Amino acid sequence: MRLLSIILAAARALRRNTMRSILTALGIIIGVGAVIAMVSIGNGAKAQVEAQIAGLGQNIILVFAGTANSAGARSGYGGAGTLTVEDALAIQREVRDVEAVSPEVRTGSQVLANGLNWGTNVSGEGPDYFSMRQWPLAEGAVFSDQDVRGAAKVCIVGQTIVNQLFPDGGALGKTLRIRNLPFKIVGILASKGFSLQGNDQDDIVFVPYTSAMKRITRQTFLRVIDVQAGDPNQMGVIEDEITNLLRDRHHIAEGRDDDFNVRDQQEIAEAATATTRAMTFLLGAIAGVSLVVGGIGIMNIMLVSVTERTREIGIRMAVGAHGRDVLLQFLIEAVVLSLMGGSLGILLGIGTSELLSRLNHWPTLVSPTAVVVAFVFSGAVGVFFGFYPARKAAQLDPIDALRYE
Q1: I want to staple 295 with a disulfide (CB 3.0 to 4.6 A). Which of 238, 287, 355, 385 is the partner?
Q2: Coil vs helix vs strand at 61
Q3: Spatial CB neighbours of 208, under 8 Å, sequence gap ≥ 6
């Protein structure tokens, strides 16, 4: 019963100064709300990045051609002609647990159709590319293996190409000229929007890689080979097998550097999400400062309360209350203020996240973990910053407290 009476006494004390209690809790409300809102923004950005990486396909391994160095002029990965179609076919044939392979050739070109022209990217790929990249077609069909073998003049276009060259619709089955060569549109891709780098993913034309190499670029080498692993747990093993196979095919001696580079999707995802993780931590830390400031506000008000209620404390001690009872009462008051502020702050943080998402179209993701941590931390702030005023109240001498004016 003693604990219940102490809690009731703390509640009465807070109710006597309702406005001051609300203003004291306001610091915690803003602090918790800021933490949840900022972490939600960071988590939303991270989730968006991960979703776009996942949209590139599952269990994807990228094999890049090596760097080029000609007359002192150096280029990055993909600059050297070190990968061939035969390398891609060997990977598909000889490496275990490989589900699909797509040789890749890319170039820029002006395309013409319907009396209009547009500068875009032209990508030569294999038929499996679209299933690997989880990119469905809105209309038509993917070009076939026979189209690849015959270097057929067929193409698949993105939505931006359709909008720019066929504003009235009806692009499927029409002819698109690439470097003055006619290509029949056999498929139209579903829209993917912009990439992480801000590039329009729908602004592209896909042709069979053999058509790109023989008819458009006249290249005999590949810049990238896309490989899809059948088992995500075997990604490392498959990478090693690809490396060993290509080193053997390229006659690279022991101890010499590879003339290619193998990267898996997980490495790309980690690199892409590193920035958003750092941003989330930074936003959470900045918002956490406001939570600490709210705790300092609680300590300040509790010290003022101890001074104002010195005679009350003296009377309570004179009629039999112990120092620990007084300490517990003031500690309960501080914790109640913190938890009340924490609860309202959670609602404020969730509401702010939703508001930002709707008004600014920012991706936000409220983390249950962040909500629980913020609430627990608000209670810890109450205990930490409320302990000193409570201890000061408990250590008052009853006689001096009764004489206090």
Answers
A1: 385
A2: strand
A3: 124, 125, 126, 127, 143, 147, 148, 151, 152, 154
Alpha helices (H) along 157-221: 159-165, 209-211
Tell me phi and psi for residue 159, to 5 degrees. -65, -30
113 forms beta bridges with 116
pLDDT on residue 213: 94
Span 114-154, pLDDT tens digits: 889 999 999 999 999 999 888 999 999 999 999 999 999 99
DSSP of 228-251, one letter per residue?
Answer: EES-GGGHHHHHHHHHHHHHHHTT
* Contact call for residues 202 and 141 (beta carbons, < 8 A): no
SS3 115: coil
Cβ atoms within 10 Å, residue 298: 25
- Whole-structure pTM over 0.70, yes or no? no
- With tokens 């629980």, the residue in question is 372
Bigger pLDDT: 368 or 52? Answer: 368
Which residue is listed with tokens 């309360």? 305
Token representation of residue 278: 């750092």
Distances (CA, A) of 262 to 18, 84, 259, 285: 65, 15, 10, 37
When the pLDDT of each residue in the chain is averaged and rounded to a whole number, the result is 82
**Averaged pLDDT for residues 333-358:** 85
What is the C-alpha separation between 90 and 95, in angstroms, rounded? Answer: 8
